[in-house]
Amino acid sequence: MKFVQKAAIMNSHEMNRAIKRMAHEIIEANKGIEDLVLLGIQRRGVPLAKMLGDAIAQVEGNEVPQGALDITFYRDDLSKLGPVPQVASTEMPFDVTDKIVILVDDVLYTGRTVRAALDVIMDWGRPRAIRLAVLVDRGHRELPIRPDFVGKNVPTSSREIIKVKVADFDDTQEVVVGEGQES
Fold it and tell me: All domains of the chain, ordered by start, with CATH?
């Protein structure tokens, strides 16, 4: 299926502004950064967590520990991914027990990715709290999951696709909306 872009909904400047705002909201909600850790969901949640961590460090003067979650084997649609699913790494260089975990992802849609990420985190320990930060919330939830920190709410139809592009994986940094079409 080929992605056909309809519009850019956030440029690089707007993404950076949203990340900075979310960083301030996280600091305020947690009354600082004590016991705070950031976990990005592979793939694009990881560079977004880094950007968020950098923005928090600029305000607080201290770094927040960061890690990466691969949810591949926790997905409820693993059988649909084909015989050889693409697996990334889970990197948690800290104990999550009694920490305030900020789970970071690019787009919140059905909530199934977040549900899988919660399972991964709970297999590693028992955090004091888990909060969800997403760059884009597009609606259409299938599970009772809501974000605590949102860069932008974008109402979409179920046919539409939101793509977050980041420098680590793409030639640009922007958020676009489009549709998938048979090639």
Answer: 12-75+87-156 (3.40.50.2020)
- Phi then psi for residue 18, to 5 deg, are -65, -40
The residue assigned the tokens 């690089």 is: 12
Of 62, 52, 2, 4, the closest CA to residue 26 belongs to 52
The pTM is what? 0.93
Q: Which residues pair with 81 in a beta bridge?
A: none
Closest by CA to 143, choosing from 119, 108, 103, is: 108
Q: In whole angstroms, what is the distance from residue 168 CA to residue 134 CA? A: 17
C-alpha closest to that of 176 among 140, 135, 147: 135
pLDDT, tens only, 95-154? 999 999 999 999 999 999 999 999 999 999 999 999 999 999 999 999 999 999 999 999
Which residues make beta-bridge pairs with 101? 37, 130
Q: Is 177 left (phi over 0), alpha (psi -120 to 50) or beta?
A: beta
CB distance 121 to 69 below 8 Å: yes
